From TrEMBL:
InterPro entries: HTH_LacI (IPR000843), LacI/GalR-like_sensor (IPR046335), Lambda_DNA-bd_dom_sf (IPR010982), Peripla_BP_I (IPR028082)
Top-level taxonomy: Bacteria, Bacillati, Actinomycetota, Actinomycetes, Micromonosporales
Keywords: DNA-binding, Transcription, Transcription regulation
PANTHER family named in the record: HTH-TYPE TRANSCRIPTIONAL REGULATOR GALS, LACI-RELATED TRANSCRIPTIONAL REPRESSOR
Annotated protein name in UniProt: LacI family transcriptional regulator
Region: Disordered, residue numbers: 335-365
Domain HTH lacI-type: 5-59
């Protein structure tokens, strides 16, 4: 009969102590990377399987985190969350965690899912995506002392919220976000640098924290260049048809823009349908040069058709989320990795990471 593989067996093969093997399994962040890799190679070679129930009894932790799969939309921008979830799963595995996925059609239903999941599973924490004003999900978890991190900033100012008599904003919590205003500002500055002076914007209706943030990057950049953004802004729900309609409305004006920056790749793909090609006429106008179009999210479709777009560091954002959760779950004893990823001084303090996106220039302008 083959010898049973135990922690001691793994320790002998990896030439480390049993405690080191236990640390790799339960708290990998405290073990040097070289040693972690040696232990993991030994685990793989020996086919060792840790007893999860025994580990949970010993540590009081399931090492299981849950995250929602959002409803499918147009097949373009949904890929952004897909890439984030892929990165989250990889980062969680490397840190010794597992990810549970669940569905909910909206935020209200998601809170119901929290209650059900916490009753059925011994979850360590949640990762929330798509933060919004008066985010009841964050408030619900905070009130019940359930650990969580958000991919997205809390958009409400607590003092202002109280003065307006709105629902109380929970105390500051760990979050990771991408600086959308900076990404749109990069796109707008590049268009200014290439000679454009009438730069339009197609974004979501006001009230969305993410959408308003991206719009501000466009408007503030134009104002800084001494240009007035008035009349060059159109709002539309996310989607191809909506983006096309908004862009056509912009281009039908007496002084149409020569470039359009969009809050998403879906809107930008629609805008491309409204843009006249070389030698085409639009809305009864004279022949025009092609209008430059820029999207946001750098989706695979943008890459395939040559759309200039703002790229979010999704893998880095996912890794930061796992780091922040591990900090919370380990009682704040971790250090180093999260601080090294805090790449923008706009982040408010420990546990708040604001990442900078990058502009990918392609044929669309």
């Amino acid at each position: 009969m083959a010898e049973k593989v135990t922690i001691a067996t793994v320790a002998r093969r990896a030439r480390v102590s049993r405690q080191t093997v236990s640390n790799v399994l339960n708290a990998p962040h405290i073990v040097r990377e070289e040693t972690r890799e040696r232990v993991r190679e030994a685990i793989s070679a020996l086919g060792y399987r840790a007893n999860q129930a025994a580990r949970q009894m010993r540590t009081g932790r399931s090492r299981l985190i849950a995250v929602r799969i959002e409803p499918t939309r147009d097949g373009v921008n949904g890929s952004v969350l897909d890439r984030f979830l892929h990165g989250l799963t990889e980062a969680a595995e490397a840190a010794g965690y597992r990810v549970m996925l669940y569905t909910a059609p909206d935020s209200r239903s998601e809170i119901g899912a929290y209650d059900s999941l916490l009753g059925a599973y011994d979850l360590d924490a949640f990762v929330l995506t798509g933060t919004e004003h008066d985010d009841a999900r964050a408030a619900w978890l905070t009130e019940r002392n359930v650990p969580f991190v958000t991919f997205g900033r809390p958009w409400d100012d607590p003092a202002q919220t109280r003065s307006l008599g709105r629902a109380a904003v929970p105390s500051p919590h760990p979050w990771v976000d991408v600086n959308g205003a900076d990404g749109v500002a990069q796109a707008t500055r590049r268009l200014l640098d290439t000679g454009h002076r009438r730069i339009g914007f197609v974004g979501w209706p006001t009230g969305s924290g993410v959408g308003d943030d991206r719009r501000s990057g466009w408007a503030d950049t134009l104002r800084s260049a001494g240009l007035d953004p008035t009349g060059l802004d159109r709002a539309a729900p996310d989607g191809f048809a909506q983006g096309e309609a908004a862009a056509r409305d912009l281009l039908a004006g007496a002084e149409p823009p020569t470039a359009i920056v969009c809050a998403s790749d879906s809107l930008a793909l629609g805008a491309l349908q409204a843009v006249p090609g070389p030698g085409d006429s639009a809305a009864g106008s004279d022949h025009r040069s092609p209008v430059a179009v820029t999207g946001f999210d750098d989706t695979p479709v943008a890459q395939a058709i040559g759309l200039t777009s703002v790229s979010q560091p999704l893998a880095q954002a996912a890794a930061c989320c796992v780091d922040l959760l591990a900090d919370v779950l380990d009682g704040g004893r971790r250090g180093g990795p999260v601080g090294s990823r805090r790449s923008d001084p706009a982040a408010g303090g420990p546990g708040q990471v604001l990442l900078r996106p990058s502009l990918v220039v392609r044929q669309s302008g």
